[in-house]
Amino acid sequence: MKRLFALLAIGALLPAAPITIQFTGTITQVPVDEIYQDITTGTPVQISYTFESTAPNQVIGDPATGSYNSTGAGYEMTFTLPGHTFTASDFVGVGILNEFVDQYSVVAPGLSGALLLQIFMQDNSASVFSSNALPLSVSTAPFTIRQFSFQHVSGTSETQFDGQLDAVSGI
């Protein structure tokens, strides 16, 4: 019991350490754009997200899977493209899979669920990760699949686009 209390006390003393990662990308498909009516294939996108580097793994007992949630002010994902900036605030979830493939995913819901911003990368050779630990930096280079997606629903209208991540543009 004393050990558990000591571990909890130490964890409570760890300072918050937000990290922001930025990507560039290009929209590859726009299945529907009823809301904005000006988003097109080939448009460049800048993506950034801020997460908590000390977030605990929410998946206990599975050494291949990690789920790290950052909640509260300052944790957000932003998609910026010509004429538009979309931000989902107050929650960013980072997922890790280190198994027969390696996967890195980031999700940020916003506008009470009406906005969903996502990143998904997969390495088919399973050589990117050596554990389910939260990486504090990431590169697109070793991943075979490097995608992002956007979905916004407003009333009965929807805008959705998907794209290819090109590179990390800053950390």
Number of helices: 1
Runs with pLDDT <50, length 5+?
1-11
Strand order of the largest sheet: 1-2-3-4-5-6-7-8
Q: Roughly what is the average pLDDT, rounded to an integer?
A: 91
Q: Which structural class matches the secondary elements?
A: mainly beta
Number of strands: 8
Strand content: over 45%
Q: What would you report as the Rg, rounded to the nearest angstrom?
A: 17 Å
What is the overall silhouette? globular
Main sheet characteristics:
8 strands, antiparallel, barrel
> Level of helix content?
under 10%
Q: What sequence of helices (H) and strands (E) makes up the elements?
A: HEEEEEEEE
Distance between the termini: 40 Å
Explain this structure to me?
- The chain has one helix spanning 2-13, and strands spanning 18-33, 44-52, 65-81, 84-98, 102-110, 115-123, 145-154, 157-170.
- It is mainly beta and 171 residues long.
- The chain has an 8-stranded antiparallel β-barrel with strand order 1-2-3-4-5-6-7-8.
- A hairpin with a 2-residue loop joins strand 3 (65-81) and strand 4.
- It is globular.
- The N and C termini lie far apart (40 Å).
- The model is unreliable at 1-11 (pLDDT under 50).
Short description:
The chain has 171 residues and is mainly β. The protein contains one helix and eight strands.
Secondary structure: elements and pairs:
Layout: H1 2-13, E1 18-33, E2 44-52, E3 65-81, E4 84-98, E5 102-110, E6 115-123, E7 145-154, E8 157-170
Antiparallel strand pairs: 1-2, 1-8, 2-3, 3-4, 4-5, 5-6, 6-7, 7-8
